[in-house]
Amino acid sequence: MIRWSGHVPAGVVTQEMLAATDWLPTIAGMVGASNLVPKDRPIDGVDASAFMLGKSTTTGRDTFMFFGPDGELMSVKWKIYKTIFRYSEGIDKPIVKAQFPMTYDLSSDPHEDWNLFNTRLDNAWILWPVFRTIGSYETSVKKYRNIKVGEEFTGYK
């Protein structure tokens, strides 16, 4: 939730997606300080300031990748669909790799009870934007490697 009288429209309820990583570019954009967001490295966040200020109907984010405690990909949410590659029944339970990605329509199945591939394989088109997102992420990590904890960042070449 966000409140800024005179700037952010009140009472808006939305199904738009926003991630924690979006707050840096969004708040910077809202207060006119986008120029202070670092340009020498990739920023995972999306600037949703136009949405927050009531100037756009979308946040600009339509995917979100969720990683497990081991740093490996668990699932990808794209629009109303969630595709699960690995899962765990609880924090104290082992992570299980699905034999085939499990995909759910969260608009009609928010509890993830009905895997779309259990009955209809013609839903496989949903995997295209998911794999495109994963490919973009992997390309980015190759170009802009993650910085190790304690390592001095001297920029990317």
Describe the 3D structure.
The chain has 157 residues and is α+β, with helices and mostly antiparallel strands. The chain has two domains: 61 residues, no CATH class; 58 residues, Arylsulfatase, C-terminal domain (2-Layer Sandwich), CATH 3.30.1120.10. Helices cover 18% and strands 18% of the residues. It contains three helices and four strands. A four-stranded antiparallel sheet has the order 1-2-3-4, covered by helices on one side. A hairpin with a 2-residue loop joins β2 and β3. The longest helix is centred in the C-terminal third of the chain and has 17 residues. It is globular and about 50 Å long. The N and C termini lie far apart (38 Å). The model has no long low-confidence stretch (mean pLDDT 93).
Quick tags:
18% helix; 3 helices; single chain; Arylsulfatase, C-terminal domain; 2 domains; 157 residues; alpha+beta
Can I get a quick summary?
This protein is α+β, with helices and mostly antiparallel strands. It is 18% helix and 18% strand. Strand 2 (73-78) and strand 3 (81-87) form a beta hairpin.
Unreliable segments of 5+ consecutive residues: none
Describe the strand arrangement of the main beta sheet, using strand numbers.
Answer: 1-2-3-4
Number of domains: 2
Shape designation: globular
Quaternary organization: single chain
Mean pLDDT: 93
Q: Between the first and last Cα atoms, what is the distance in angstroms?
A: 38 Å
Strand content: 15-25%
- Please outline the major beta sheet: 4 strands, antiparallel
Estimate the helix proportion, in percent.
Answer: 10-25%
Number of DSSP strands?
4
Number of helices: 3
- Taken in chain order, the helices and strands follow as HHEEEEH
Q: Radius of gyration from the CA trace?
A: 18 Å
Summing up helix and strand content along with how strands pair, one would put the structural category as alpha+beta
